[in-house]
Design brief:
2 domains; mainly alpha; Four Helix Bundle (Hemerythrin (Met), subunit A)
Length: 334
């Protein structure tokens, strides 16, 4: 009976928490994007290419712990994902944004003043911004995307990524929240423009709804994801977290070999973490104090392993270190 109940619980848990991603509908008909993107390209791009990313992503996530993750959670740790998950999650996110910011000229909305002011402050004019985006898109070798993003310091930035990567991912050189993306994979334009990417780029700006882009800009400025990306760029934190996870979790399961053999590495990463420069918004006295406490706790663990302390003693102390690390993370959320 207990076994049956356990199976039912697991099944219900999967039912409630697993999710499937779905293909968003286009806001306008395929022909509405003419003459800048032909109807056949829109139909194939949306119904075939984007649908394939959704189908393959759901297939890759099915039955795994990742099935309950949000898209943001999947993207933030892209470097830890398989190529299948990384490419298809990126493909789904990137195309979903692309469809949102495109509109026929008579359906486009007005640009918000705050966005226009930010563009003028950083690029001088909208024409200069378009030139920067065109440059990023035209010089992206092979397949990829050009982006306008909001960075963790709340500035606009033009950048590009290869394949289906995007600036939310931890693999991206320039990170932030995308508010505009331009697809430069050939499937986005080949039927009409063949290999003439420059002609496609010349036309695509006629379809960008700057009202939608500016609305995304305003939302990005207050999105907690900016803070998460800033923290995620703190490499000393990520390096320590990796060793902590690889020593603490095995100890939880009764395997103390990683902790006993890597306590010196744990201490070294803790010292580097404590001496590192936090991101600007996290550079607070209470964060530095917590980091110092964490390094001292890791030193205690190192000394205990050198003395061949009992497993239960090590478990108690590594748990304290684990809790201190999460204290640092919580302080960084404030």
């Amino acid at each position: 009976m207990k076994a049956l109940l356990s199976i039912l619980f697991i099944s219900m848990n999967s039912l409630f928490f697993a999710q499937e991603f779905s293909l968003p509908a286009l806001p306008y008909s395929f022909a509405s994007y003419e003459p800048y993107i032909d109807a056949q390209t829109m139909e194939i791009h949306h119904g075939k290419h984007h649908q394939a990313y959704v189908t393959n992503l759901n297939k890759a996530l099915a039955g795994t712990k990742m099935a309950s993750l949000t898209m943001t959670q999947i993207l933030m740790d892209a470097s830890f994902r398989s190529d299948v998950v990384r490419n298809n999650a990126g493909g789904h996110y990137n195309h979903s944004l692309f469809w949102e910011i495109l509109a026929p000229k008579d359906k486009q909305t007005s640009m918000q003043g705050s966005f226009e002011a930010a563009v003028k402050a950083q690029y001088g004019s909208m024409d200069s911004l378009k030139k920067a985006l065109t440059q990023a898109a035209s010089t992206r070798f092979g397949s990829g995307w050009a982006w306008l993003i909001v960075t963790p310091d709340k500035k606009l930035m033009v950048t590009s990524t290869g394949n289906q990567d995007n600036p939310i991912m931890d693999v991206a050189k320039d990170r932030g929240i995308p508010v505009l993306g331009i697809d430069v994979w050939e499937h986005a334009y080949y039927l009409k423009y063949q290999n003439k990417r420059a002609d496609y780029l010349g036309g695509i700006f006629n379809l960008i709804d700057w009202g939608i882009v500016s609305d995304k800009y305003s939302k990005a400025l207050v999105d907690p994801l900016l803070s998460e990306i800033e923290k995620d760029n703190w490499m000393a934190l990520k390096d320590f977290h990796k060793v902590m996870a690889q020593t603490y979790h095995p100890a939880e399961e009764g395997n103390f070999v990683p902790l006993r053999t890597r306590s010196g590495e744990l201490l070294a990463k803790a010292i580097l973490f404590a001496n590192s420069k936090p991101p600007v918004s996290k550079d607070k006295p209470e964060v530095h104090k917590a980091l110092t406490n964490l390094a001292e706790q890791c030193e205690k663990i190192y000394e205990l392993t050198a003395k061949n302390a009992k497993d239960e003693v090590l478990m108690k102390e590594i748990t304290k270190a684990h809790d201190l690390f999460h204290q640092v993370e919580e302080l960084c959320h404030d």
